[in-house]
Amino acid sequence: PPETEKSVRIVVQFSYYDEMDRLEALVVELLSQDPVAILTDSWFFAKRELPRVLISSSKHESPVQNDYSAAAQRSTDFVVVSPQTHETGRRIEQALSSRAATASGVRRAFSDSKFSLREPQAVSPSSNESSNRAKQLLSDGNGALFGADLLWRSNFFGSGVRIAVFDTGIGSKCTVVSHVEERSGWTDDGLVIDEVGHGTFVSGIIAGAHSQCPGLAPKATILSFRVFSGAQTSFTSWFLDAFNYALAARVDIVNLSIGGPDHADIPFMDKVRELSAAGVTIVSAIGNDGARWGSANNPADMLDVVGVGGIERDGHIASFSSRGMTLHEFGGNNAFSYGRIKPDVVTFARSLSAPSHRNGCASCATLSGTSVAAPVVTGAVALILSAVDPLLRPSVSNPGAIKRALLEGATRLSGSSMFEQGAGLLDISRSAHALQRIAVEHARAEAVVSTALSGGDYK
Question: Where is the active site (predicted)?
Fold first, then answer.
């Protein structure tokens, strides 16, 4: 999970697209108090057609060009003010929170949170033994990816499902993740290529086609969002910027193999809810804080996010996997609130194998943690969505239907509480059947409503 700290950077979030000019004038006026302050804006605020750095393999126009006005109407946006000193930052933050600023379209002003990516184990080259074990995971009926091979035999590989991976990017010349539509960079270093290995590993688990360490949904479309720098650091504002673009790109799933304890990061949580309301399913790691009750990380602990925990090969909860229940509802005005059951589901998270970011992803690497359990579930969601009739798929491509299918399909583990395992171990085959049933139920319900409105008989 990230380690958070407050920086001098002030994020100014606003709601009214038509007020951009007035808001910009207000911010510039405030910045005149600090001659060396820097104004950094998002691509959305600057009316850019592409993110700061973008490599696209698609021959189509950018989704921002196709759906810009619609995305603008539903999205909040922001500018980042970077004063030289904390004193100036506090002054600007207070001024932008005033009534005058609110009247100009400012929704809130807040200190930008800086956080770091860390794992219980570094990405390392896999041995022959671990590589063979990983291949077994993909075919063994008792393995982490139970049921995936049944869908593969029916020719379902994730086709038609769009997945945004928010991470450290994908390695250079990594052809084993073959359906990468875009690589975009949202950090200050202007790069899109993975220098760490984490993002390549995660993307490989979801949609890799490596013969030695294949992913779950190799024909799913990947949009790689590099939101962590080479130093494995990020800011809330970088995520907000990338989330806006993901909305415009009309992705079906967002994989967040990150998490942290900063439940007070309201703008981040609001944006997650905005994506969920738009029908985007967000899958997030529950965290690696170990056997401590109430240690579930954000955003995996949110109601509309699929929170993923980890287990060992023997079926026991992994020692590093965070536990529920959620605790941030307690206190303050929520004295009579209660926590939610988290994680939602669990899957295997120890020594999984996926492509290494080095040498064009020619070899495999191993990694443990809930960060690698989350993309297993993301790949599973892509797989079960692709198994739904394309005409019915839009009705179930949303967080409600997906979570219902995952929870109904999961298998309870003996000896573990609901705050350790949620609904239980991911079962791809059972969840696929559940989602297909939900799609048919929805179609029948729609037919009943349509027939009733037209005055006809429904049988």
Answer: 167 (charge relay system), 198 (charge relay system), 371 (charge relay system)
Instruction: Provide the domain count of the chain.
Output: 2
User: pLDDT for 111-148, tens place per residue?
Assistant: 777 776 755 444 544 444 444 443 444 444 323 455 68
DSSP annotation of 371 reads: H
Q: Looking at residue 413, what DSSP letter applies? A: P
Interstrand relation of 221-226 and 162-167 (parallel, antiparallel or unpaired): parallel
Closest by Cα among 199, 196, 170 to 182: 170
| Tokens, residue 67 | 């759906």
Instruction: Given the residues 198, 210, 328, 357, select the one marked as catalytic.
Output: 198
Query: Among residues 167, 241, 262, 344, which one is catalytic?
Result: 167
Report pLDDT for 123. 52
Top pLDDT among 445 and 407 is at: 407
Render 317-339 in DSSP notation, one character per residue.
Answer: BPTT-------TTSSGGGTT--P
Q: Check whether residue 112 and residue 194 sit in a common domain.
A: no
Is residue 451 one of the residues assigned to a domain? Answer: no
pTM recorded for the entire structure: 0.81
Lowest mean pLDDT among 144-158, 225-239, 345-359: 144-158
Residue count of the chain: 459
pLDDT digits (tens, 9 = 90+) for 186-222: 988 889 999 988 999 999 999 988 878 889 999 999 9
H/E stretch holding 106: strand 106-116
Q: What is the pLDDT of residues 243-279, one digit of tens each?
A: 988 988 999 999 999 887 766 677 888 889 889 989 9
For residues 215-252, one letter each, b for 16 or more C-beta atoms within 10 angstroms of the residue's C-beta and e for the rest, the string is bbbbbbbbbbbbbbbeebbbbbbbbbbbbbbbbbbebb
**C-alpha distances in Å from residue 96, one per residue of 28, 46, 89, 90:** 12, 19, 11, 10
- Is 371 a known active-site residue? yes
For residues 241 and 371, state if they share a domain: yes
Q: pLDDT value at position 170? A: 92
Assess contact for 379 and 253: CB atoms under 8 A: no
Is residue 270 part of the annotated active site? The answer reads no
75 in a domain, yes or no?
Answer: yes
Question: Can you give the CATH number for the domain in which 16 is found?
Answer: 3.30.70
Distance of alpha carbon 63 from alpha carbon 247, whole angstroms: 9
Give the angle 12-15-20 at the CA atoms, nearest 5°. Answer: 70
Q: What is the pLDDT of residue 105?
A: 62
Catalytic residue among 321, 353, 371, 429: 371
Active-site residue 319, yes or no?
no
CA distance 119 to 285: 11
Closest CA to 167 of 216, 221, 206: 206
Strand partners, 110: 11
